[in-house]
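Morning run. Coffee first, then this:
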Amino acid sequence: MCFNFHKEREKYIAHQHANATAYLIPFIEQSLPIHKGLRVLEVGCGEGGVLKAFLDRGCQGVGIELLNGKADRAKQTLQNEIKTGQALVVNKDVYDIHIEMDLNGRFDLIVLKDVIEHIQNQDAILSKLRDFLKPGGHIFFGFPPWQMPFGGHQQVLASKFLSRTPYFHLLPVPLYRAVLNAFGEKPRSVEDTLEIKETGISIERFERLIRKNDFAIALRTFYLFNPIYKYKFNLKPRVQFGLLSKIPYLRNFVTTCMYYLVKKEEAASN
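And here it is:
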């Protein structure tokens, strides 16, 4: 298994694009046709690989990326589409975005791929994203449940032993920190890993927040093997076994990825 995947940026971008083309878009199209002119926003667009797949289908795309380096790489990845006015990359905090001035209006579809599990206040971001959607608009979420074998993203750690050790991210914070330090992880890596522990999200919590913010679940798929593993580890994507996907809480430990498509519903008036 290759655990240095995230250091190979060009390959990473290509694999994100291929995964979005082969799995993410077909999943969405079970409910929402992806067609020319559809306005798509990706929050946390990284280097632009996922958004590029939508642009290839003729969509109008905007990517929001907080990190300067990733935003610059996204602008490079999407340079042709940016030149023609088909795409835009906005290097800002999503909470500082002005819908009209920064985004040129609302969207039919918002995409968060491997992003929601990194956000501190997930309730607040869901409320914010409602404002970015047209009436009846949709949001795609793809994320690993926190309790899954590598839900702490420990595969990116420098220690080969820790990067291959499942479930140890579930240790209590003091012990978890002690283990990371004992294996020589750099202070920045330790803090980043602990932050993921703080923001990781379960299936049940995600669905509670979806309902609270007046979204309806249009589609969901539980994956035993995340589709991106095809590109990372040459493992064929596999949907979770039906029985396991129906057992609350336990399913988080054996499901490596969730795909959701949720639809904006108008809040009931009092």
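Residues 63 and 89 are 5 Å apart (CA to CA). Good start to the day.
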